[in-house]
Amino acid sequence: MVTFDASELGNLVYLHAALCECLRLYPSVPFEHKAVVADDVLPSGKEMKAGDKVLVFSYSMGRVEGVWGKDFAEFRPERWLSEEAAGTKKKKLRYEPSYKFISFNAGPRTCLGKEMAFVQMKTAAAAVLWNFAVELVPGHVVEPRLSIILHMKDGLAVRVRRRDGVARHG
């Protein structure tokens, strides 16, 4: 079985983009409960008083056409990639403001473990995809079940087979 180490993960730009796209559409924490700390007025004109409770639905925010464009419902990792670097065919990750992509919270409350989470996700995904062919079981419907943590209603039915003649990595 081939494994990958952290020093190689920076080159897996498309995988990083695919993980961001997964988290945009299916955030691990689909909503958060917040409290207003000081009286304020939202851009819409809505007055908020200190102590008011606010629910932030990251699941819904990942599906707003005005934020993500007409293809908001499509799984499209390319939305996370910038143009090719000058003189190369390599794409780079595109910066998205933390208040647009809130899977790891935003601003001063951004998750301290965000980069470690990406290292772990990329390490696991790269090893699985290098060593195995994974495909959805035909006809299986993926339906989310909202709770504190986002789950799939009936799990994820996949077929996994070891890849034939997998070349040794490294």
Strand-helix topology:
Blueprint: H1 13-25, E1 32-35, E2 40-41, E3 47-48, E4 53-56, H2 58-61, H3 65-68, H4 114-131, E5 132-136, E6 144-145, E7 151-152, E8 158-162
Antiparallel strand pairs: 1-4, 2-3, 5-8, 6-7
What do you see in this structure?
InterPro entries: Cyt_P450, Cyt_P450_CS, Cyt_P450_sf. It comes from Panicum miliaceum (Proso millet). One of its GO terms (molecular function) is monooxygenase activity. Belongs to the cytochrome P450 family. This protein is an alpha+beta fold and 170 residues long. It has one domain (6-162): Cytochrome p450, CATH 1.10.630. The chain contains four helices and eight strands; from the N terminus they run αββββαααββββ. It has helices at 13-25, 58-61, 65-68, 114-131, and strands spanning 32-35, 40-41, 47-48, 53-56, 132-136, 144-145, 151-152, 158-162. Strands 1-4 form a two-stranded antiparallel ribbon. A two-stranded antiparallel sheet has the order 2-3. It starts with 12 loop residues before the first helix and ends in an 8-residue tail after the last strand.
